[in-house]
Design brief:
Length: 152
Amino acid sequence: MSKTAAVHDATCIFCKIIKGEIPSFKLLETEHAYSFLDIQPTAAGHTLIIPKYHGAKLTDIPDDYLQDVLPMTKKLVKLLDLDIVGQDGIGYNLLQNNGKIAHQEVPHVHFHLIPKRDTKTGLGVQWPTAEPDFETLGKLHKELLAKLENSD
Ligand code: 5GP
Ligand code: ZN
């Protein structure tokens, strides 16, 4: 993967954290990614993983700045003791909000790693669902496949 030159925004709070201009409770850092404790955790150990490239939404970030995010998240899951084999009742969510309507407050892409140890702390999910409608799904699938065929 080719290396894209980093982009930073001097006014962005997460860019300032990456550059050490404001403090953070840093956990892991690589050439492309940085992780630190969320300042207002919804559960103990709530951690943010960010690319070292400024962009508000996922598609603004070049692939090389995303390549460390999931491997880093896996290390953090282990560090936080969230995947101890046989440990019943412990889980975690990985959340990445894009856009104000989708609950994004900080316009620098970030992945929340949120421990789920009980019903009171951590992520609560409201997820309205529709009944399976195979005609609508099939039509959409066809449209998307046609778009994929026409894209490079
Ligand atoms: P969003 O709603 O944009 O997905 O989440 C932004 C997250 O960033 C929030 O959970 C908030 O607590 C966290 N946050 C905002 N400012 C700071 C900061 O200065 N330091 C740290 N460590 N976390 C922050
Ligand atoms: Zn930024």
